[in-house]
Design a protein that fits this description.
The chain is of the alpha/beta class. The protein has nine helices and ten strands. It has one domain (4-251): Aldolase class I (TIM Barrel, Alpha-Beta Barrel), CATH 3.20.20.70. It has helices at 54-67, 87-98, 114-120, 135-141, 150-163, 176-179, 182-192, 213-219, 245-251; strands spanning 4-10, 14-19, 28-29, 43-44, 72-75, 102-105, 125-129, 167-173, 196-200, 228-230. It binds iron/sulfur cluster. Residues 29, 31-33, 36, 38, 41, 79-80, 107 line the site of iron/sulfur cluster.
Length: 255
């Protein structure tokens, strides 16, 4: 199974060469979001462990960059990247081998842990996720591991924001189930203070209906004063040759 795939055209990051630090057949994640394009979570866990080694990532990246051009290396893939216990080392390896900035897409679930914040701090760009404003909606939309608390995650995000020197972005995935709470969600996002907020809705195959452009546009005023990007309005760069095409097809999530 490909550890490195793409580059794919990302509305947030440009030509993004993916690294999957989990790289398993099923989906290993601390959440089981109702809109997830990867299907049901096969292992819901908060236990960090090593799935792929630095050597494996270094080898795969060396081969990939001989064949493709990219703007950024992005840690994402078949689950939650912060579950990789060696994420910090993998980020450093990826930057050294590729000479490119490194981004991590995370669901924010483990940012309450010091060691996870330290690992993420090694990236140039961190894109977290915040789709809800309280525990009840958290259970409905993100269906988290039983040990996770929404309040603790928000505290962790604030601590991370305070110490991170790179670009910190927060994605809000909007679906019919949280559409009526966009104002409350915006207030929490405002209190965290990311550099950029990305309003998204599931445009890839998903069990949940995406919002229409009009619905997403109506929500934007709740986020007034924050730097905002919306999936319907963002331009996507063109990409040339690719590696790991099967993986790109499987993930169905180019960004
Ligand atoms: S956090 Fe991401 S990978 Fe995990 S279930 Fe939610 S959408 Fe899927």
């Amino acid at each position: 199974m490909a550890i490195v795939y793409g580059p794919v055209s990302s509305w947030r990051l440009g030509r993004s060469l993916g690294v999957d630090p989990i790289c398993q057949r099923g989906k290993i994640c601390s959440f089981d979001c109702i809109y997830c394009s990867l299907g049901p979570t096969t292992e819901k866990t908060v236990e960090r462990r090593i799935f792929v080694t630095e050597d494996q990532v270094a080898r795969a990246l060396r081969q990939a960059i001989k064949k493709v051009e990219a703007d950024v290396v992005t840690f994402s893939g078949t689950g939650e990247p912060t579950l990789a216990k060696n994420l910090g080392e993998l980020i450093e390896t990826a930057r050294e081998i590729s000479g490119l900035p490194v981004a991590v897409l995370t669901n924010s679930s483990l940012q309450s842990r010091r060691e996870v914040r330290d690992d993420l701090a090694k990236a140039d760009v961190v894109k977290g996720k915040l789709d809800v404003f309280n525990d009840q909606l958290f259970q409905t939309i993100n269906r988290p591991h039983r040990s996770l608390s929404f309040q603790e995650i928000v505290k962790g995000l604030k601590k991370f924001r305070a110490g991170f020197r790179g670009s910190f972005q927060l994605e809000v995935m909007l679906v019919p189930e949280n559409l009526g709470f966009s104002r409350e969600i915006a207030e929490i996002v405002r209190s965290i203070g990311p550099d950029e907020v990305q309003l998204n809705t599931p445009l890839r195959p998903s069990p949940v209906r995406p919002l229409t452009p009009q619905e997403l546009e109506r929500v934007q005023s709740d986020f007034e004063g924050m730097k905002l990007r919306s999936v319907y309005l963002a331009a996507k760069p063109k990409v040339g040759s690719m590696v790991g095409k099967d993986k790109v097809r499987r993930l169905k999530r180019p960004d």
